[in-house]
Each structure stands twice: as C-alpha cells, then as structure tokens.
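[Meeting: bench + compute handoff]

Bench side (C.D.) handed over the final construct sequence. Compute side (W.E.) agreed to return the predicted structure before the next meeting so the bench team could plan truncations. Sequence as handed over:
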Amino acid sequence: MSEPTSLAGEAEQLDAADGLAAVRERFVLDDVTYLDGNSLGALPAHVPARVADVVRRQWGELRIRSWEESGWWTAPERIGDRIAPLVGAAAGQVVVGDSTSVNVFKALVAAVRMAQGDGPGRDEILVDATTFPTDGYIAESAARMTGCALRPVAPAEVPSALGDRTAAVLLNHVDYRTGRLHDLPALTAAVHAAGAYAVWDLCHSAGALPVGLDEHGVDLAVGCTYKYLNGGPGSPAYLYVRRDLQPRFDSPLPGWNSHAEPFGMRSDYAPASGAVRGRVGTPDILSLLALEAALDVWDEDGVSVAAVRKKSLALTDFFLRCVGAYVPDGRVESVTPAAHGERGSQVALRCDDAGEVMKRLIERGVVGDYRAPDVLRFGFTPLYVGFADVERAARVLARTLAG
C-alpha cells in the first residue's frame, strides 16, 4: 500500500493546480468532508441573503405586485433558460416546477400519447429495470392510464427489446446506485429508429457532466435541482420538451398556469405554446427563487460543464487510487465502471456491513451515504470538492474498516 504522505502531497499539488478551486469559497462548508452532493448539494453562500430579500421585500413589501414587478410569473421559464445550457439545450425548452416524479408522469404520458397519435399498435412502455423506485412507480401508473403494458429492461438491453409496439422508453442517464453512465446518444438513436419516444431522467447527471439534449435529439427529459445544481432541499424540478414536439405535448396535468389565457378563467382548456405547456399550478416561489440564486455559481469565470466534467473524472480517478492504496485487498469492491465514458460523478463501493460503516464514517467527519443492501456511495461535486477531501475520505475509510 502507498504511504499516506505521498498521496496527501499529490492531493495538495492537484488542489493548487485546480482551476475550479476558488469556487469552493462560494459555498457554506466546514471541516466535514462532504461527499453527498449527489443527494443534497451544499448551500451557496449568497443564497440566504437573496431568499431574505424575496421574503422581506418582494413578499413583505410588494406582496401581490411581485408577480409582475419581481418577475414571479415568468420565473419557471426564466430559470428554465438558465438550466438549459447545463443540459445542452437552447432556450425556450425547459420549464421549472413541480417535483421530478410529477414531471416524469407528464413526460411519459405525453410521450405515449404522441406515439399513439403517430399510428396504431404502440401499447408498450419500456422502463429502466434498475431505475430509482419512484420512476418505476410512475411508469406503472402511466402504463395503466394509457392502456400500455410496462416492460422493465436493463438499459443495455433496450436496443434488442424495442419493437413496433414500443411507445416510449424511460431511462436514467446515471444509475443512482452504481454511478454507471448510460449511453444517451446511442440509446436515444435506437429508440427513434424503432419509432418510439425517449424520456431521460437527468437527476444524477445535470450539473456534473455534459448531457447534450439538443445535440442528441432527446424528446423529453426531467431532472431535480437539489443535487449537483445545489438548489436546496425539495427545490423544484424541471421538464425539457424538444422544441419541435412542443405543439404536440399533451400534458396529463393541464392546469391554469399552462393555459393559453391563464387569467381568462375559461371552462375549456387551451394549452399555451412553448415550454409553458409543462406548467400546472401556482409556482413555489420561495424555493424557485432560491434555486435561481443558487445557479449564480455557474456564472463564474471558468465554471463550465466541460471544466466540471474534467475535474469530476480526475476526482473519482484519484479516489479510486487512494482506496486501492489504503484499503486492504478484498475489503471493498468498486461497482462503478472504471471507463470514463461509463462513469457519472460518484463512486459506489460494495462493502460488508455498509450501513454501519457509513454511520462510522459520518461520525468521523466523512459524509457519504448508503444504499441497501451493501453499497457505500460517495458523490463528487467538483464545484466544492477538492483532492484533499478525496484523499482524506479514502484514508478515513481505511481506518474505519480496520476497526
């Protein structure tokens, strides 16, 4: 095993050369090594003051006038346009609001409706068999609602599972347990070749790596904003609808906020044009504007998705090296792919007694999380995680496993 001083010195050199190192100062952090940004991102330091202004001035003083004067009414599309470049989309295709679960439901039902409108016989939905449970629950409900059969398949098996009956395919860009990055371009192309529609869940990729929604012709996509986008606990999710599909986007949740004349109070529903169709009810303004403030960190010089991805791969590579150097053979096993093209921004280690091990790690100031039955998850947010954090986490892990 390598000597800790050697890797610690290398971490110090890597941090000194890190072009994103200064961004760390824009977050509220302490001495804890925080590797759980893939569950909840850290707080950007300027957000509390911004939220205080929303509460005290916009709500407290302007009150109802803030819907126009403070831009509350247009916030879902305005903030969507700020998220758009982070997922490789042009403006006018992303709307922010509701939860990821609600947006999965909207997107999947709308995808099936479009497929069934293209021609008869499209009565099957494929869903990632390894998906986050909620996506599976929503897919099952959407299938019942649209008269479809639901067929769970592993992402790698999607091309061979597609057929004339396939209406829509719901996939995760990054597997939440293992950190495996799935091939969005190839899988989307395969779905299109079968005449179906692709719906992607970007919860574990947006803000951590390039997505390329427009470039790869993705039909619909959803994602949360409280992980790598640091929007805060329960911050609103987003929905992407490709521009040419927007006139055909038939939401199963038509609300007054997506009406062509929301204040017309008409009894019949007429959908608005553009991304606004993805709205439902009154936006959650406090959370929405906290998210808007959090996105300011992406305005810093040198903060780009490409730069973040480069550092993410360097961090995860270095962590795996440190684990290999410090942890005795056979004590943990990485289930995260070694190949860069197949890796998200986390490392998952299979470990006996993983729940107890993570509890002890947290007590010792290294925060990751645990997924049953035996997986330790470590998320790497390049905006505020450094190489010294990585080396310390591996060193503490080794000490913890030693008893």
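W.E. noted at the follow-up: The mean pLDDT is 97. C.D. will use this when planning the next construct.
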